[in-house]
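Go through this chain for my students:
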Amino acid sequence: TFAVVSGVAGAALSVNIVIILGLANLLADGFSMAVGNYLSSKSDKEYIQKERKREEWEIEHYPKGEVEEIRQIYREKGFKGKDLEGAVKIITSNKEVWVDTMMKNELNLIEQNTSPVKKGAVTFISFLLVGSIPLIPYFLSFSSEAIKQIVYPFSIVMTFIAFFFIGSAKVFVTKKNWFLSGIETLLVGGAAAIIAYAIGYFLRGLA
């Protein structure tokens, strides 16, 4: 969204154009990302379910072979002798645990309970909330002449703060340095905006 805003600002077009293009981009991209997330999650879930049914069928029809696979899995984990046989007996005594073990250790597949619809909805709402930040100054400019005079710099400040906080928030997953993570996202977002602004500036005569 900020790249669109920057491109329009570079072309020196009106506030109305910024809002129209910004909102169109925000809603279209948000919808596209949400549907993409939904379809991807749905495909992953269907694939995992298919593989689970296959494992259940193999346990039902070829139990000896599947028991040996469990034995091999736990042998590689360092189990030996009675401990190994005890672990195999415990795992294979419960079909659900048996299938879960095969899914995780043989196929490297872990089932997620999150609904694909919920994932898509969260993606869409999050995209709208954060993606609207660059447009807020432009909406505020209708009620304040002072803001209208500095609307693009105001948008830059708000967006760069958002970039930094979004980048910093990644540390909850990556466990890396929060400041460097924030700066990284800020630089990437800033670079995209500079490119868009430059294109708008050099092609402003076409508008």
Summary: Residues 1 and 26 are 6 Å apart (CA to CA). The mean pLDDT is 92. The first helix runs from residue 2 to 10.
